[in-house]
Amino acid sequence: MTRSIEPWIDFFLREKGELVHINNVKQLALIRDATDTIQMTDEKIIRAATPLHTGDIVDYRYERYLITSQVDQNEKSCRGRMQKCNQRLALNWNGQVRWFDAVVEARTFSTETGKVISMPEGNIIVRVQVNADTRGITLSQRFYITHQPFKVVGIDRILNGIVQLSCTLDSINTAYDDVENNIADRWKYEIAHTYALHIHQGTIAHVLFNGTLPLNVTATDNRNEMANPAITYISSDPNVVSVDQQGQIMGIALGQASITAKLTYYPTVLSTIEMRVVETGTHFYAITIIGNSVLKTGQSASYVSHIYDHGMEVFDQSVEWSLQNQDHSTPIMGSVTASTGNSVTIKAGSSSGANNKVLVLTATLVSNPSITAEKNIGLKNLF
């Protein structure tokens, strides 16, 4: 594209132009590759009848580009060079996280010679659009790219519309960095969440043909039970076992199917149970244990077992209790101080070694010792 097309720019835009979004505004533009040879970076020349500026964001063919050159302004059109944003990075300002489309290179061009300059190993150049957020970038600010931490060691704002950052590899901070999601210092300002979902009927349960059974499900966050968690229920075969979104199961036909419960907004947190639809006449017992999942060292708490037959609670059965460390080590960091049939009182150990240990409380059905239930109890320091 040369200046000679200026008199016919409107014609070319109508006939050859492509729809793009420039700073979220839809318009026609002429796009061509910046070079005929294959390069490591995807650079293109853009020409439009509307104003273009260095640092403009261009959405083109489902990719995002940053205008990285000075803009050539002609009588009827503007022309510039744009480079594809090959990374999306998060910058953290005291817990306020902002995401930016960026052009990241391990090499750059000399403005004096026009030659490629190789950067030292572990160093990169990052270019982002100038805006209210990027104006706040400071030296030593950290960010992640593909699970690798970098630190800003130089800031160049000479080119209007572009902030160019010189960055070097930094150390991973395991206490504060959310490495998986590429957010530096996230846990410095937020609480890290560890979600879990537990179906108390175990891994296998039974429901009567044409009968119903409510799933007993608990969701925890950092071992603390969540109030009214959003849970999605799915049956592997609704023609055998159906489930509604309250966790109510119905036996539709003799056979079996899997029921999966997922945290609606964290679908990777799930639990599955195999449901078998059976006829009446056989006992199918299951046990659940109710009580706190976290216990302060030196303190006591009570736990109660509930026994179900075909999903209906029964009161003519009892359990025996036992306690052990989750890692099977000794001594056991807690003790049973009282036991009355289907309830038990547990006292956590008070030694320094008890902190962050996990006790496993087991209830065993007296009439059928093959039927058991377990509850994990995390121990935390009192102060």
Overall SS class: mainly beta
Count of domains: 4
Strands across the major sheet, in which order? 1-2-3-7-5-4
**N-end to C-end Cα span:** 72 Å
The helicity comes to under 10%
Strand elements, count? 34
Major beta-sheet overview: 6 strands, antiparallel, barrel
Q: What is the molecular shape?
A: elongated
Mean pLDDT metric: 89
Radius of gyration in whole Å, from Cα? 31 Å
What ranges have pLDDT less than 50 throughout 5 or more consecutive residues? Answer: 109-117
| Count of alpha/pi helices | 2
InterPro entries: Invasin/intimin_cell_adhesion (IPR008964)
Organism: Paenibacillus terrae
Protein name: BIG2 domain-containing protein
Describe, in plain words, how this protein is organized in 3D.
The protein has 383 residues and is mainly beta. The chain folds into four domains: 17-84, no CATH class; 87-189; 195-278, Immunoglobulin-like (Sandwich); 285-380, Sandwich (Immunoglobulin-like), CATH 2.60.40.10. Helices cover 3% and strands 53% of the residues. It has two helices and 34 strands. The strands form eight sheets. It has a six-stranded antiparallel β-barrel with strand order 1-2-3-7-5-4. Strands 8-9-12-15-14-13 form a six-stranded antiparallel beta sheet, with no helix packed on it. Strands 26, 28, 29, 31 and 32 form a five-stranded antiparallel beta sheet that branches. The termini are far apart. Mean pLDDT is 89; it is low at 109-117. InterPro entries: Invasin/intimin_cell_adhesion.
